[in-house]
Amino acid sequence: MVEINHPLLGYIKEYALLSVASYHDNFEVSPFFEMFDRDTYSSYPQQIVNCDGFSSSDKQRALAIDTTISVDKRIMDINYMGSMALSKGLLPHFIENNSGHFVTITSITGKVATPQRTSYSASKHALHGFFDSLRSEVFKHNIAVTLVLPGYVNTNLSFNALVGDGSKQNSEDHDLANGLSPETFAKKLITAIEKKKNEVVIAGFKETLSVYLKRFFPGLLAKLVRKVNA
Known about the structure:
The protein is an alpha/beta fold. It is 45% helix and 10% strand. It has helices at residues 9-16, 18-21, 30-33, 69-97, 118-138, 174-177, 182-194, 205-216, 218-225; strands spanning 47-50, 100-105, 143-150, 199-202.
């Protein structure tokens, strides 16, 4: 492995690769860390896409009372700490070059919290807090920050969602099965990145409506949310 002396390397090792290395036995760590070695590449990346929200084990399908603290921590480590640590690792380079773009995949639940998503929603709210604040700090360095809020996308991620004891759900969510196609989501994501939008919702009608209800009619939304998964 390439020897790297980076002040945040320990955090990046622990968090940024947690969601991948834990579920892919053949994942090779060293090529990833070569991105931090100036002798390996002529330049650092100018854009980073934090997509921990689409990894295998960061979703939740359990009530708060049934979720262990270890599962709470695991979700926060993968969804929040991973993105934060990797972004801070590249931030000095972006500032040095007066250029860069952080793109972070969060979730509609980063705005609208629903039942059986307590820790998952908390991790996504944390991403919004961190990257909204970061945007205000780095704009003077010509660094963009884009937050992407997906709704339901037709993938198999629900099979890997965690129940209260940390085991996998191993079943399909109806909402995901009827969500946007990955191709549609990807096209809209690329457009948002190219335009360097501050924030973009890529979702179906109901999820998009919930974001506006949260802003303008929070009391009504609170009543509607109680019926989710009831």
